[in-house]
Amino acid sequence: MRSFVDSHCHVGEAEYDADRAEVMARARAAGVRQFVVTAAGGTLETNRRALELAEREPDCWAVIGVHPHDAKLVDEALIERIRAWARLPRVVGIGETGLDYHYDHSPRERQLAEFRRFAALAREASLPLVVHSRAAADDTLRVLREERVEAGVMHCFTYGPEVARQAVDLGLYVSFSGIVTFRNAGDVREAARRVPLERLLLETDCPYLAPEPKRGGRNEPARVADVALGLAAAIARPVDEVAERTTENARRLFRLPAD
Ligand SMILES: [Zn+2]
Ligand SMILES: [Zn+2]
Prior knowledge:
Number of strands: 8
Radius of gyration: 17 Å
Shape: globular
Structural class: alpha/beta
CATH class: Alpha Beta
Number of domains: 1
Oligomer: single chain
Bound molecules: zinc ion
Order of helices and strands: EHEHEHEHEHEHEHEHH
Strand content: 15-25%
Largest sheet: 8 strands, parallel
CATH superfamily: Metal-dependent hydrolases
Helix content: 40-55%
Number of helices: 9
Strand order of the largest sheet: 1-2-3-4-5-6-7-8
CATH topology: TIM Barrel
């Protein structure tokens, strides 16, 4: 059976409170060996949820930080808490952080400032940075360069081949979500073809972005298998190879144990 790592999922969130055990069981049955549980929002509460899950479930790890949507909520106390939690053994990355100029839920200056602050925190903690970037490619690449981010991932990649090439040149991994299966995402599939096999990751970003063939509705980690099929088709490689290589890559980036 194929093995997968869901390198970015939000299964700690309230959307799964009613049936989390079933959701996780379906994922394990579909071959998901490890879950990188990312804090979804800007509050300590979402970070605490990710941490608790990672501490409770042997196949879950946590990425902690503040989404760019909520950059305006970041204060010193929150940063100090994240800095302290970053030392916990179940924490494998800092994020998701970055820039979202599509929604602009926080002022861009705040997004830029907090992105830099989390990049510095990740470097100081020797943890990879999990980057969210939407409609903000130039500023994202500039900050990554200026902050000398060497280990990290552009998660849920939505750009074309040129941005992918620059991300790879910076030493980053590039992670593809259900978007790679969407009919109108030709540019994203072309980007995937430019990323070397050793830098590709798979994710669901659930509860968002349910892939084809059942687009829409609540997504869940079991569907990483459908993302793998979409990525394999996009880059014209066998799906077994995509599963194997992306699993190795996620374990290398987040320093997860092999099972
Ligand atoms: Zn994101
Ligand atoms: Zn996310």
